[in-house]
Amino acid sequence: MEQDKAGGGQDAGAYRHADPITDEALTWFVTLLDAPVDPDARAAYQAWRNRDPRHAAAFDRLSSLGSMPELQQASTLAHFPQATPSPSAIRSATRRRSGRFGGWRASLAAAALLLAIGVHLQPTLALRLTADHRTAAGERREVALPDRSRLILDTDSAVALDFAEGRRHVRLLRGQAYFDVVSDPAHPFRVTAGFSEVEVTGTAFTVRADGGQDAVFLERGRVSVSRREAPGQTVSLVPGDRVTATVDGLSAPARPDPAEALAWKDGRCVFHDQPFAAVVDTLRRYHGAPIVLIGDRLAGARVSGNYRLDDPVAAIRSLADVVGARVTELPAGLILLR
């Protein structure tokens, strides 16, 4: 294992809240959990809080959600820096933290809840109205298509079908799917995702729509991958090729290990020398509740492994031991890694 040195140790896969101020507030939230009365931490927090009234508002929202006495105390100290906690207050706070449902657990739960709201809420109502087939977290489903082609839908995925009047068109609305297409030269089979369109007559391939990019991997046959937006780039793939499509265009074909690219079909997650944050991002799709990686300390650690996807929590625990992450499991399955 080694730390990724590119970008000062940060990784694009690390958790970021959409609002940068809330992201900073969450960092202070967790820092003060670890050292609620540390003078240096308190001084740095106070300086950050006083720089912008939005900082104080964001932190207070987190603090009020958690109802943690130590964090409320830190907020008070920011307004009245001459105040210092009394020994009896510290002892009282320590006793409260030691309880099963003490302040620190409530605060962690509040932080996880905020993250879940900011990261994991999806437009599920619109998806339910649009999708013909959907899978829940941890579920895989095989679907027989009207033309006798076969579709395997990965976890937390959705597709919409159009097979009317000779058309063979699948829209990947979310997630990942494997297609085993029956040959019909007169009626090309098309798959569209966020940034790309794949056209074939008969072949087997996967498409994954993952937020900022689509990834197409060809197992056998030939496919043509095009950009949905102008300028209309097109790349032809041969078996073993993978291409990604983003808002900036199509990548050159890469040659990943097929065992890794198709492992999910067999219920496995296989990876070699990947950033810890990227692997967590994959595993959280198979877990019914959020898995949140806080901060950048561990995001770029390189890991390898082969894990069952029907037990993502066991995989997370094992990988956390490798990289030295602290695992906190919260009610309703929420997991914090830091």
From TrEMBL:
Q: Could you list the residue ranges that cross the membrane?
A: 101-121
Domain FecR protein, chain residue ranges per copy: 132-223
One Pfam entry name: FecR
Q: Enumerate the Gene3D superfamilies for this protein.
A: 2.60.120.1440, 3.55.50.30
**Molecular function in Gene Ontology:** sigma factor antagonist activity
Identify the residues that the record assigns to the FecR N-terminal domain, covering every copy.
23-64
UniProt keywords, alphabetically: Membrane, Transmembrane, Transmembrane helix
- Asked if the Swiss-Prot or TrEMBL record annotates the protein with the keyword Membrane, the reply is yes
The name this protein carries in UniProt is FecR family protein
Please report the organism this UniProt entry assigns to the protein.
Answer: Azospirillum brasilense
